[in-house]
Amino acid sequence: MLATRTLLSKQTLAVLSRQPACFVHHGDYGNWGNTNVAVVFSGCGWWDGTDVHEGVTMYHLSRNGARFQMFSPNQQQMHVMDHMRKQPGSGENNMMTESARFSHGQGMMQMQDLAKLDVNSFDAVIFPGGHGITKNSSFVKDGKDCKLHNDVERVLKDFHRSRKPILASMAPMLACRVLPGIEVTMGYERDDNTRWGNWPHTTIVQAIKSMGARHNVREPYEAYVDEKNKVVSTPTFMWETEYHYHYIFDGIGNMVKHVMRMSTK
Q1: pLDDT above 80: residue 123
Q2: Domain 36-263: which topology?
Q3: Burial letters 148-165, b for 16+ CB under 10 A, else e
Q4: Which of 55, 86, 207, 252 is the most exposed place for a label (fewest CB within 10 A)?
Q5: Under DSSP, is residue 218 helix (H, G, I), strand (E, B) or coil?
Q6: Percent of the chain having pLDDT more than 90?
Q7: Following DSSP, what letter does each residue of 53-93 receive, concatenated?
Q8: Alpha-carbon span 141 to 148, nearest angstrom
């Protein structure tokens, strides 16, 4: 009997040792693989698309036991920026092609056309931030009266109508434009400079308040939850810092944890 138990223990340990770390350790909410999230990109790069740092959204989803699929509008973007010179450069300017830089392998890690996103196939949707949010809508030109890409507007309205969570980091302005009366955070409402960082994009806060949204002040590492509308937001790079990127990383993690809680079946 003892020999049999020892053999079974060795076999069990052998099986566990061959599993990825996530088999042994997963997040705080829900069952492994039970939540399916759509992640919508708007290019690749802070100045013209989705911020590459905000791609950590996918890390937090994985860490908390979610499956995800990447999407992007299949259309021309405003421009591709030379991020060294901070001015428009030459090169491919299709938003989906640029967003595919986030792809890695096949399946869920392959970029899909946003036109194919069906709300019935997902439990939540995330719009990571970056200046592509403002440039690939008409916000730069029209401000609070901006028009969104047709599929972006459709997806936001579909998830809201279906009572499924919407996450946004710098991208709350998209939701505020088509879902009046929601509550979000984009950080501070004025540029309070400190030795830790500053808030140089507060004009966007004023714009979303003009759209009819209620703004709530939060720190970079915090998330705000509008439980009624199931909208979760965090400031991310509305705050600029030279050394404390981990606060932004933590804010995205807190946002994802709230969505996992709200999406748990």
Answers
A1: yes
A2: Rossmann fold (3.40.50)
A3: bbebbbbbbebbbeeebb
A4: 86
A5: coil
A6: 44
A7: GGGHHHHHHHHTTEEEEEEE--SB-S--EETTTTEE-SS--
A8: 12
